[in-house]
Amino acid sequence: MDERAFAAAVYGPPAPLLAAPAPRHRGVTEMSHAGPMSDAIDRLHRAILAARDEDVATSKTARLLAAGLPKMGKKLAEEAVETALDAQAGDRGRIVAESADLIYHLAVLWAGAGIEPRQVWEEMERRERLYGIAAKVPKASKVPKPSRASRRRDPVAARPR
Question: Residue 77's closest CA among 36, 105, 51?
Fold first, then answer.
């Protein structure tokens, strides 16, 4: 599958411009994963799965899938760093381009790990029900570690009586 056919399989025909959806608010408990972004990722996922059987000599996607999860993870991390560096530089155009690469590599990783986008949407819905619209699930609070001095054995207390 050449790049043009891959893009058509992933993105389909251009969608008409629609009015922006109403903003969602914290505490909204109903989230539908049917929308332009999830549809595009679903199409991307299907195209990635179809590329598994392609020739690794001509298909970047087939090559990544054949290389395994460690390589996919490395490529995902590289794209995340590139996106972050472009953000630090304030280069909006590069942020958009690198974000598209980042999403592509994330979808390849999902496919390589046997994860369907639907599973990610369901996890996002679960989190929204629990926490509302949140950037991240809060981490459990960490108990501070005792200082080195308090971990040392007290020689007086250690003596037999």
Answer: 105
65 and 81 Cβ atoms separated by less than 8 Å: no
* Alpha-carbon gap, residue 126 to 144, rounded angstroms: 30
Digit-coded pLDDT (tens) for 31-43: 455 566 778 999 9
CB 78 within 8 Å of CB 85: no
Q: Which two tokens stand for residue 94?
A: 């590069």
3-class secondary-structure state, position 64: helix
With contact defined as beta carbons under 8 Å apart, do 46 and 9 qualify?
yes
* Range with lowest mean pLDDT among 16-20, 74-78, 94-98: 16-20
Which has the higher per-residue pLDDT, 129 or 81? 81
The pLDDT tens digits for 5-41 are 555 555 554 444 333 443 443 433 344 555 667 789 9
Residue 104 DSSP SS3: helix
Listed as own residue / partner, the contacts of 59-62 with beta carbons closer than 8 Å and 24 or more positions apart are: 59/1, 61/6, 61/108
